[in-house]
Amino acid sequence: MNKISVIVPCFNEEEVLPLFYQQVKQTLERIKNITYEILFIDDGSSDHTKDFLRILCNQDQHCEFVSFSRNFGKEAAMFAGLKKANGDYVVIMDADLQHPPYLLKEMYHAVNQEGYDCCAGKRVDRTGEGKLRNFLSHSFYKIMQKICKMDMSDGAGDFRMMSRQMVNAILELKEYNRYMKGLFSFVGFDTKWIEYHNVARAAGHSKWNFRQLFSYALEGMFSFSTAPVVWIGNIGCMIMIISIVIILFGLVFHTSQFFKLVCLILFLSGLQMLFVAIIGQYTTKDYLESKQRPIYIVKETSKNLTQ
Ligand code: UDP
Ligand code: MG
After folding, report:
1. Whether 238 contacts 224, CB under 8 Å
2. How far is the CA of 298 from the centre of ligand 1 (A)?
3. CA atoms within 13 A on the CB side of 60
4. Which of 23, 76, 154, 182 is disulfide-compatible with 141, CB 3.0–4.6 A?
5. pLDDT for 235
6. Per-residue pLDDT tens over the stretch 89-137
7. In CATH, what number does 2-223+295-306 get?
8. Pocket flag, ligand 1, residue 14 (CB < 6 Å)
């Protein structure tokens, strides 16, 4: 009998967890010839998420939890879940029911019967999300698509069921700066996509603000693309040519030397600062990797959870 592990990263999700548990359990019970575990990763919640999980895991032997010592972020929570899960197939799902549980059955069929290594949900719209966030996310994925060699399309999130082989491949990637959408794409394997419509959160509110989303976007870009460094080179060459033209122009038409100089200095120094910042991004990534800090720190786990 195959075992399905469902990984659920939770950060302050007390409002939605009871409903999530009820719906996901019901769906899993209906899939024939499987056993399952639901593995909640409490990512340093400050509400009653952990209290709820403690009680739930005592009552239901299918449920386990890991609780972090602080908020390490969803990427760390997903990594911890993948490490602790011992199922033949592993699914990652958001706690807010934005990843529809009814797709689990179809996903299981795809990986168990149709020979796929992975079956992933693809959100075809962004109903229920703000217009500005919608626009910015969409633009980000468009840029990523252009500058990365890997397939990271809009709507292709973390909601997916993977074979044990694929999970093990992802666990081999031990980098500190994690961007799961990129890692899924990096490891490859045959993926079936099933489309679904976005729904608003069942309860609670989104844990991301614009600042976090922006730095997450940069994380994705700097972790998976070195294109900005190439841009720097190209822009640098262009600037050199332009400045030579300006100087020649000044020599021919006798404009005020001071004006020319100030324009040039301001322009070039601004540009240099920008370039140094971009190069700095890559260097700091390397700096964090070289420290080999743990990706997360566990404070508490449910009783049955070993490893
Ligand atoms: N999450 C997490 N740690 C964080 C932020 C979010 O574990 O620091 C979890 C959250 O509890 C939820 C999932 O990641 O289960 C997606 O978060 P959210 O719904 O806030 O993101 P959105 O759907 O708005 O992108
Ligand atoms: Mg959500």
Report:
1. no
2. 18
3. 16
4. 154
5. 82
6. 999 999 999 899 999 999 999 999 999 999 999 888 777 677 887 888 8
7. 3.90.550.10
8. no
